[in-house]
Queue: 4 jobs
Job 1
Amino acid sequence: MSLYSHLQARSPTEKPVTISTLAEMKAAGEPIACLTAYDASFAALVDDAGVDLVLVGDSLGMVVQGHDTTVPVSMQDMVYHTRCVSRGLHRGFLVADMPFASYALPEQALANAARLMQEGGAKMVKLEGGMLQVRTVEFLAGRDIPVCAHIGLTPQSVHKLGGFKVQGREEAAARRMIEEARALEDAGADIVLLECVPADLGAQVRAAVKVPVVGIGAGPEVDGQILVLYDIIGLTPGRMPRFVKNYMDQAATPLEAVAAYVAEVKNRSYPAAAHCFT
Ligand code: KIV
């Protein structure tokens, strides 16, 4: 079946996920299944598998473009891939990453976020950083741009952090992260994304805010899970972080693998202890 006929065959009764759906899922205690995608074909596949939130991550710099970090990714790259993904999606809520240095000033952030929404079709933008981004989040939220605030390990800061490392292990850093989550929520962030932190800190951040907290390597006690698509279907070469599970090991097709991931997020069997940091 071609992608075109595949899209036409979709049930028109299946309502697209909105920001309100995500809040309702949190309130109902239903885990939010999230995954990255970078093109229309995979977007259609993850949509079919029941992924609730689809992120066009700047991880595309590593898994699509072959860079060592996400730093080289440009606005043009993000707009292009977001537009591709938006053509494949019907139900999933589309979030696009703001790339490195594209949101250093609030006005610049607004112009670039508007491009991701108007040209790319994103429904929300994601930016990395804690207290330093509070003013920018407030500026965007005040202009009706939905924002996901990414804290914990922020890969765009890899050269400042000295590598991709677990964050928030020391008490002071953990306390600071909880304060950051609260400040970003107060500034208008609609989702907090928490990367690579001890599982008990994941639970504390979730308890500290009302908005959904989506984790990647942040333990089971958050409102949703996100992973990089290519990692869970075994396409990414090299050593995987502890939180990655390869669902192709027990699947005949990528669609089956993604559906198994969604099922395990929903029934809370992913992440298991082996995928969590202490
Ligand atoms: O760029 C990305 O893919 C991310 C993750 C949270 C998966 O930011």
Job 2
Amino acid sequence: MRFLTAGETHGPQLTAIIEGMPSNMRFSFEEVNNQLQRRQKGYGRGRRMQIEQDTASVVGGVRHGKTTGAPIALVIENKDWKHWTTVMNIEPIEGSDEDKRRVHRPRPGHADLNGGLKYNLKDLRNVLERSSARETAARVAVGAVARQLLGEFGIKIAGQVIRIGKVEAQRRDLPIDEINRLTEESPVRVTDKRAEQQMMAHIDEIKQDGDSIGGIVECIVEGVPAGLGSHVQWDRKLDGRIAQAVISINAFKAVEYGIGFDMARLPGSQVHDEILYSKEQGFYRRTNRLGGFEGGMTTGEPIIVRGVMKPIPTLYKPLQSVDIDSKEPFSAQVERSDACAVPAASVVMENVVAWEIAVAFMEKFGGDSIEEIRANYEHYLAQLERY
Ligand code: EPS
């Protein structure tokens, strides 16, 4: 299974094509739009989110509410496009740099300068339009389809914000449905009410300062059988593939599983998860400090993966940079942006993780129809039981 996305942040639309989804899967448009709307929320976002009301149109691969096995094509319109028809016109336009809103002062931390150097572009708008995190709307729509496949097999996903800047949420071991219920009610997607207030106050301070702030988000996946991914080849290790997908989310810089970076300072006896067995549960672990993976394969315990998001690079308080025309030092160009997008990034992370698990699920149980996959899946579960 694979997908590609296309589209610019101020262009007419985002487009995604998913290849390899099985046929006969019930397709919920509502679920795709629900995920898109979840991504748009979150305390700390800028004015752009008041313009957009993301919904996806399906323009291929679904008929009478079910997948056909053909590529699924999804389109999300940019409502803001109507303000950018000249600047983003695909035909050549006459006019000054001002009319074209040409960008020549790269923002530190953004893709602007590297993209300009690499693609030999003297208008950095060509870089920022595509590198914008707007693209994550398309990836959330794709993940929302993957989630429907996983849902057929009882796999559940939750996301929660663990840290925003200096405020850390108290992490509690709650049932996954409870995490989903509490985070859905929270403007910063936390389960800890005390931290919620402090995080919102912190975002206000940061915004007043013309600054931005990052954080940590956690994704939990339950109901994944043991044995997705593989130890036999480097690029089949599923924890590695999820890590790549998480780091590919705009502004994400680090990933950890389970107790994560704490593993570096603890002895093995306090890191590894002891193996137990019961007739009802089969093999299971006393703890889940490794976050659901050993040898690049799922253990059957919940997957617990965290991602670190750096502060958004577009600052109202610009950092020093160099003008690509004059080569003179300059304060970086200010573009409208969000002070904090960590809550939205939590939704993005859930959906990119869902995609990677769905890909591994299809590799293991792959078939062309949902019925074929179900038969393979049930056969495997019976094999695990007999083992
Ligand atoms: C973004 C800048 C802002 C964000 C945008 C990501 O957009 P604009 O430049 O139009 O103000 O709102 O995020 C989205 C549009 C979105 O849908 O998440 C950036 O530079 O990455």
Job 3
Amino acid sequence: MGRMTASPGRRVLLAAPRGYCAGVDRAVIAVEKALEQYGAPVYVRHEIVHNKYVVQTLERKGAVFVERTEEVPEGNIVMFSAHGVAPVVHEEAARGRLATIDATCPLVTKVHKEAVRFAKEDYDILLIGHEGHEEVIGTSGEAPDHITLVDGPEDVAQVEVRDESKVVWLSQTTLSVDETMETVEALKEKFPQLISPPSDDICYATQNRQIAVKKLAEDAQLVIVVGSKNSSNSIRMVEVALDAGAPAAHLVDFASEIDEAWLEGVTTVGLTSGASVPDVLVEEVLEWLGARGYGDVETVKTAEESITFSLPKELRRDLREEAAALIADRTGTSAE
Ligand code: 0CJ
Ligand code: F3S
């Protein structure tokens, strides 16, 4: 345990909001509930959220993370991660006789529905997002023939559409708001008739965390973002802090990853965390900083968050029974 000291002039600005969003909270509780209700193992396709500590903690409780649906032995329960899945993944699960729990964030589902609707109306959809990210793989899978991925402003030059009068842009939920607007401006220049999504695709949590980290960047000489290296929203927060003028910003999973050298000449440290990060990890960083003279902590609050989501509906059914029935259906035996 670190000794808390406050050296004159040294302080920490702690962002609020930070950490868990409503979709992550729901997804993590869903895994815990499934383990409670059905016992281990509960298979989860892809990391439930992109956080090392969360994944390790759930693994210890009996969750088994896999990348492909085919890795789940038939007759089991598989949960889909907060980032969402393409319709073909639901088909894979049905083929593999798996009972499913869908922990896709409702705000990702909203984007999937927009994609389906615009594809039905035969629009070309320009999906702004990061190539290879789980969420854009899922969203693109809703209408592969209608969706083109646009990975940042530099991608715009090569984008082609069938009919310039019928083009809409949608986006991944965890992008940098400012960079996305740059991409949209470049797209609009190329396709003046481009229409915008009916409501923000970049979610409230992503937006709020970026506004908060910008505020920290005004005063801090060092910004620490707690989050994992594969967490899009957490990486964006580091970029946003640097763009907003922070002289230095780093992403760390744990306090132990902080380099003492980063503190050289630093009086004000800004501290925040990504949407997939439990607050215990931020508390550990606060202790680490407190032990080095940064014991004076001031919260910088830029928004109030009260949104919550109800748990996936499947958790109200008996899924082990359902999975057994799926196997029985195939083998011709009756489920117990
Ligand atoms: O895509 C999402 C629904 C965000 C989930 C929360 O964050 P995280 O770190 O798991 O995922 P991103 O890489 O998308 O930020
Ligand atoms: Fe959902 Fe946004 Fe969190 S899309 S999972 S509320 S980061």
Job 4
Amino acid sequence: MKRAIFPGTFDPFTVGHYSIVKRGLHIFDEIVIGIGHNQSKKTLFTIEKRIEMIEKAFENEPRVKVTAYSTLTVDFATEWQADFILRGLRSVGDFEYERTIGDNNRLLTRIETVILFTEAEYAHISSTVARDLMSYGKDISNFLPPNVKV
Ligand code: ADP
């Protein structure tokens, strides 16, 4: 049984995140989406709303689970007996950050990070832009997975 966690803030979970998980299901038997929860970090969407939106996106996919966590990511992975951390890469901007945390996580626990390159049509999609657009009253349905609404 190959299990990976897909950790992130997902504020909100976008079609870019959705694509990474769908593709990850070709590699892993099960993916646990972990919403990292930090009391001091302000988010637009509540934990409950983020869980609800992600559950809706994967309502027909029993191999995907969703939960929040407030521990170190590697401890969350260990708790779920996951040997892999799944992440997505959009640009060279993402690269240095992902390498640093990936190296640290492997040194802490031997858990490997598996990184998938984004599909070109989602390279510009980010939770930050989605939140900005929302704050100006714009429709962000193109940023969200199929069947998911804010
Ligand atoms: P974090 O706060 O941990 O960076 P995010 O919710 O921003 O969490 O992202 C979670 C993961 O999804 C990260 O690996 C990020 O690079 C990846 N990701 C975000 N947007 C996209 C996208 N459009 N295409 C592919 N991967 C993405």
